[in-house]
From TrEMBL:
It comes from the Bacteria. This is Uncharacterized protein.
Length: 420
């Protein structure tokens, strides 16, 4: 009897599944391994690398579209497109808002000129923003145009505060305050008229960064409105955590409260996922926030996120967070140890059950504190990210590799192969 052509593939698939289900040995040798050891072990990891991801392509497409329409002065088309993507709650595979990416592209030239001047120690020319201001009058009552111009002012206000040396220039504080005040005035007429437009709500949240001094409750209220009208976007929840932390540095009670409140409000969409989303960027900024974190609730959140978002952008993001942001820290305070270790210990199942391909830039981003200074060229970032990820995986499965196994990843999951 002739063997059906599909039978060998069936046997191979069953064998791979059996290998995937086999218990993985993690005996903690990674503490004694140096970089050279990890690099040697990482040669036994088979992990496809995607240098340009679907997420990057989608972000670039929306940003480039916004830039092109603004440069060609096609503001009617841009306003209509922002309104349409707002209404549809359109976004990238990773959950970035399409309307905000369009708005970013539309203002990027004007903001870049301001930032370049400040980096050079010069007072920026206002011709660009003045030209955008004229558009507000031309498109009176059109909220997308007002939102784009307001966001440009917000970026410029932040540049005056954040770019090294800018605060020492003549009238820096007054100029920053002027841009922030102008942004607030531009948004005010649309708070009620376009109150369900995520781009307007997001701009009002961004304005908080340009006007420091608001209390945590005020910050939380603005973000909760944004999350209520666009709950599917994790970007807003991550922004909430970072903003509440900035409003009350060193006091983590408000952060814990808002993480739980957000989880309760979005449970039908994210399960416990919002609790993890709110904490994600906050922990990257200040690991001290672990002191009030509920590890079990956070881990439930990770599982709920991945049950709803099965894309590789999310899998890489959460694996890099647990591997790099939550890696062991010998200088940490004793009360923080259990929570940090519990989150870091999620890495094996994240790798085994969810990782299929490597997105190296996500791993590089995990190495750098949010808002850090200028980064190296893209090629260097890709190389750094791949090396970082492979070392983290090698550290987790060092015993298995040392005993002659190779670790392989595919759409079928992670499995082990005997090394050649």
């Amino acid at each position: 009897m002739t063997t059906p052509p599909t039978e060998p593939m069936t046997r191979l698939r069953d064998a791979l599944r059996a290998m995937m289900d086999a218990p993985l040995r993690l005996r903690g040798r990674r503490g004694a391994l140096g970089s050279a050891d990890l690099d040697r072990l990482s040669r036994h990891i088979i992990l496809p690398t995607v240098a340009v991801t679907d997420e990057e392509i989608a972000r670039a497409a929306f940003q480039d579209r916004g830039t092109k329409l603004a440069r060609q002065e096609m503001w009617d088309d841009l306003a209509r497109l922002i309104a349409e993507t707002d209404a549809a709650r359109a976004g990238t595979p990773g959950g970035e808002s399409a309307s905000l990416l369009l708005a970013f592209g539309a203002r990027s030239d004007v903001v870049a000129m301001t930032e370049d001047a400040l980096h050079d120690g010069a007072i920026p020319d206002l011709d660009g923003i003045d030209a955008m201001e004229a558009l507000v009058d031309e498109f009176a009552g059109d909220y997308p145009v007002a939102a784009v111009v307001a966001l440009a002012h917000i970026d410029m206000a932040w540049a005056w505060r954040a770019i090294p040396g800018a605060s020492g220039l003549d009238g820096a504080a007054i100029r920053a305050a002027h841009h922030a005040a102008r942004a607030e005035a531009l948004l005010a007429p649309h708070v009620d008229a376009a109150g369900d437009a995520p781009s307007v709500a997001a701009a009002r949240c961004a304005l908080l960064r340009a006007q420091p001094g608001h209390g945590a409750q005020h910050v939380a209220d603005r973000y909760q409105h944004l999350i209520d009208i666009d709950p599917a976007s994790p970007r807003h929840m991550r922004g909430l955590g970072a903003a509440v932390l900035a409003a009350m540095p060193g006091d983590y009670r408000a952060l814990e409260l808002e993480a739980r409140r957000t989880a309760a409000r979005t449970g039908d969409i994210w399960g416990a996922g919002a609790y993890a989303w709110v904490y994600l960027d906050a922990l990257a900024l200040d690991p001290g926030a672990l002191c009030l974190l509920d590890p079990a609730f956070f881990i439930d959140g990770l599982r709920d996120i991945l049950a709803r978002r099965r894309d590789q952008h999310t899998a890489n993001l959460l694996a890099a967070f647990c591997a790099i942001t939550m890696r062991p820290d010998t200088a940490r305070r004793a009360p923080v140890i259990p929570a940090r270790d519990a989150l870091h210990a999620c890495l094996p199942w994240l790798l085994r059950d969810h990782l299929q391909e490597l997105h190296p830039l996500i791993w590089t981003q995990a190495l750098h504190r949010p808002g850090a200074g200028p980064l190296p060229p893209r090629r260097a970032l890709l190389s750094e990210g791949r090396r970082t990820a492979l070392r983290a995986i090698a550290a987790q499965f060092a015993d298995d590799i040392a005993q002659g196994q190779s670790i392989a990843f595919s759409p079928a999951g992670m499995y082990m192969l005997p090394s050649l």
